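Aim 2 progress update. The chain analyzed this quarter is reproduced below.
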Amino acid sequence: NTIQGQNNSSLDPITTIEFESTTIDYGKIEKGSDGIRSFIFKNTGEHPLKIYQIYSSCSCDIVSKPEEPIAPGETGIIKVKYDTKKVGPIVKTLTGNSNIKDKLFTLRLKGEVIAKLQ
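Predicted structure tokens:
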């Protein structure tokens, strides 16, 4: 499974990333609710942090990711949107490609979409 996209990661100096949380727990969310949530992260390294690409295994859309490099000490946001039209458990994984040591980071969505309460 080859990953397409910007592949300049070998040219960028390595930095470090720290997420407030790598899991978003929707808890029990009603069908049709607003599924937009944010992952907040900080560049804890000494070089600009670049998020090259984010891959989703699922019906969750990546709403936005930082297009510009995040300076050392600064924070950034990755917004995701889970489609709440289907009732059932939320178990999703997203993978991001960045100029960090391991290249990839993993983000998870969990919870349950329940039928609207009458």
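Confidence is low (pLDDT under 50) at residues 1-7. The radius of gyration is 16 Å. These observations will guide the mutagenesis experiments scheduled for the next reporting period.
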